[in-house]
Amino acid sequence: MTTDNDVADRGKVYLVGAGPGDPDLLTVKARRLIDRADVLLYDSLTPPAIVESAPAATETIDVGKKPGPDGERTTQAEINRLMVDRACAGDVVVRLKGGDPTVFGRGGEETEHLADREIPFEVVPGISSVLSVGATGIPLTHREHASSLTVVTGHEDPEKEESALDWDAIADTVAAGGTLVVLMGVRRLPDYTAALRERGVDADTPAAMVEKATWDEETTVTGTLGTIVEARDGAGIEPPAITVIGDVVPVRGEVAAWLQRAGTDGVAFESDAIPVPGLAGGAPGGD
Amino acid sequence: MTTDNDVADRGKVYLVGAGPGDPDLLTVKARRLIDRADVLLYDSLTPPAIVESAPAATETIDVGKKPGPDGERTTQAEINRLMVDRACAGDVVVRLKGGDPTVFGRGGEETEHLADREIPFEVVPGISSVLSVGATGIPLTHREHASSLTVVTGHEDPEKEESALDWDAIADTVAAGGTLVVLMGVRRLPDYTAALRERGVDADTPAAMVEKATWDEETTVTGTLGTIVEARDGAGIEPPAITVIGDVVPVRGEVAAWLQRAGTDGVAFESDAIPVPGLAGGAPGGD
Fold it and tell me: How are strands ordered across the β-sheet holding B12-17?
């Protein structure tokens, strides 16, 4: 197929959200693009089941940026170069990112690079891991409880002078009844829970950690700002995990008995088994 | 199909996110459930194209809560009753909500009601309209700019004594470089932009409004905290629209020339036309 626009001889880069883990939570558009891509560039937060669901003929490249001194690391410059080179070669490039591509996913930087190199691109939103919390029975907002939702990453030491986050302000939103979600905050959980308490947030404020939300191996623990570190250690929570702090957390306890989900709750319900004809990979890992 | 659990004779309620508007941004699971539902309960923020994509035999019920003295109004009690009655009658009930069901969607209240009545349910996350902003070229976070993302609704007068939101704290997160997204904030735009400026946020802080993000009729205007009210009026922005405030907004200007999307940018690209066999409704309105 050709179009009359002057970049028709080039490929295109799709920055695609892979969602939180369950392949059924890909968007219809993401599913179609994965099935159509010439090359798939995926990072370490992309669930394996989704990469494996690509057609066998699709070239898949792991560009995961693994932390640690011995981790293999694909630099951002290398990822940028790959996207541009392949698009210039005429390929449909799917740059797959865990969750949503522009929520702490560096999608913004990548679009700037592509635009700078005059490469056509498109951003396809995905279910951010933030939203996956809803599937565990914890609503992100609640008419009676939370009136705001704040999302930050937990990479940084809150007491660092040069911290880009205003923890005074974040603590105030939590104290006012807002929900706080911390992404990538397993290791520094003791630091930021302490930072919140020192800034006046009640130690009894409900808190939860969800590891691998919507994956088959999902684990959720609940507690309070004062107990969640112990709960994390007791359950052996490891990345990728999400921390939720606020009065919405106890809703899970109220609804858990009637919350069903294939894979995580051990309840198989007929609707979950309905196949989607024509979707390569069906629902691997979903049931 | 039967299961050995004691609620096998009952139906089930799925609280399903309909996404921001483009039917292609439904999740694979939402698509399948819509195609399978006995009854679909949808609200006023559910895009018409998605309701219309349901199989002809599916019963669809508009439970939209329309504001205003003359608007027909389905009360929450009535919605709750419908969900319970139909599930007890053995139906697969899809309660479709615009965006994500637990981000300002009252999904939490509805799960509590269902659990209280012992009705099996499941929450299927959707692309929140918050995330749809990414598709317009504005990343929600950016390594160089935004380190936090705060989401609130714009229904309330910020100067009301009993406002549930701590606008001092919200202003501080914006002043610290965070992104603020205001949902349902068309009418009160002058109020909360003034509230932010009075609390020390620079009038030059970039701002954007996106009406009907990802719909065919999408409109985006950009400006600053000081000019966005005028921009809203000039473009005639009406609900449903999203306000984005923060240093991420100008990224759109940098990348717009190479940002493509079927429907909104007038650029048809071959990949957008690939059908998904077996998905009822294909991609209505998407191209």
Answer: B59-62, B39-42, B92-97, B12-17, B121-124
- Tens digit of pLDDT for each residue in B191-207? 999 999 999 999 999 99
CA-to-CA distance for B219 and B208, rounded, in angstroms?
A: 10
- CA B235 to chain A, closest CA, distance in angstroms equals 24
Of A27, A101, A268, the CB nearest to B25: A27
Nearest CA in chain A to B26: A27
Helix count (H) and strand count (E) of chain A?
Answer: 9, 10
The answer to whether A258 contacts B25, with C-beta atoms less than 8 Å apart, is no
A56–chain B nearest CA distance, Å? 18
CA distance B19 to B127: 4
Question: In the block, which residue shows the tokens 């498109």?
Answer: A122
d(CA A261, CA B166) in angstroms, rounded, equals 36
Which tens digits make up the pLDDT trace of B224-242? 999 999 999 999 999 989 9
Residue A180 in tokens: 């706080």
Of A14, A140, A173, which is closest to B150 when you measure between CB atoms?
A173
Tell how strand B92-97 and strand B12-17 pair up.
Answer: parallel
Torsion of CA B102, B185, B52, B137, to 10 degrees: -90
Here the ipTM equals: 0.86
Share of chain A above pLDDT 70, in %: 84
Question: From the CB of residue B23, how many other CB atoms can be counted at a distance below 10 Å?
Answer: 27
Give A-chain residues touching B126 at CB under 8 angstroms. 127, 131
**Chain B partners within 8 Å of A178 (Cβ):** 165-166
The yes-or-no answer on residue B184 being catalytic is yes
